[in-house]
Amino acid sequence: MPQSQPLGSGAVRLGGTDALRKMLTDLSSDSRKAIQKLLSEIGSITGEPATHTDPLDLFDAISSQTVGGIYVDVTTTRVQETIHKDAWPKLRPVAGGSGFAYHFWSPTTKQVQRLAVILLKHSADPSDNGIERIKAGYLVTTIHEMTHVAPAKKIYDHPEMNRAAKDLGARQFDDYVEKHCIPSKYWAFPA
């Protein structure tokens, strides 16, 4: 359910879920295997397996829901008007970060739905390199937020996600994703 919103100064709009899906489709097989390994590790730690460990399959499962889904380019001031009203009861003020995710019961569908919101990112660097760095950040954020809701009903929390990444040799979750999916010139966590 792609949502477009007006841009503010320095905003880098990804352009909706189709652009995110293309980024996941373009991941190398090694990158996809690395994310599968990470999601399997989190499932082993928690005892709650992900419904899908392949990042593209997980994206498709979440984004194909009628009421939940993945929303991108959302501003913190327009979250409620962007997401479906069934998700409002669990909505909390956005405290910061680059996105959020949760499960909720939908009275419309009579099912548990998954929601992942990727907030609009900004860059002070209007060069192509600055824009590409922001797009890389969108990919890391998308994988991060999808992972929170990867199991059917449980939320994978940050300590579980970070423990799995550390068990696989990274400093923390986003570092693992970055090192396996993003060109090094765009890393937020240099080696």
Describe this structure in words.
With 191 residues, this protein is α+β, with helices and mostly antiparallel strands. The chain has one domain. It has seven helices and five strands; from the N terminus they run βαααβαβββααα. It has helices spanning 17-25, 29-46, 55-63, 79-82, 128-148, 158-167, 173-181, and strands at residues 11-12, 69-74, 99-106, 111-119, 121-122. The strands form two sheets. It has a three-stranded mixed β-sheet with strand order 2-4-3. The chain has a two-stranded antiparallel sheet with strand order 1-5. Helix 2 (29-46) packs antiparallel against helix 7 (173-181) and helix 6 (158-167) packs across helix 7. The chain is globular, with a radius of gyration of 16 Å.
- The strands making up the biggest β-sheet line up spatially as 2-4-3
Rounded to an integer, what's the Rg over CA atoms? Answer: 16 Å
Q: Give me the secondary-structure category.
A: alpha+beta
Oligomer: single chain
Shape: globular
Helix and strand element order: EHHHEHEEEHHH
Beta-strand content bin: 5-15%
Please summarize the sheet with the most strands. Answer: 3 strands, mixed
Taking pLDDT < 50 over at least 5 consecutive residues as the criterion, the unreliable ranges are 1-8
CA-to-CA gap between the ends? Answer: 36 Å
Kindly report the average pLDDT value.
90
The domain count comes to: 1
Keywords:
alpha+beta; 3-stranded mixed sheet; 191 residues; two-stranded antiparallel ribbon; single chain
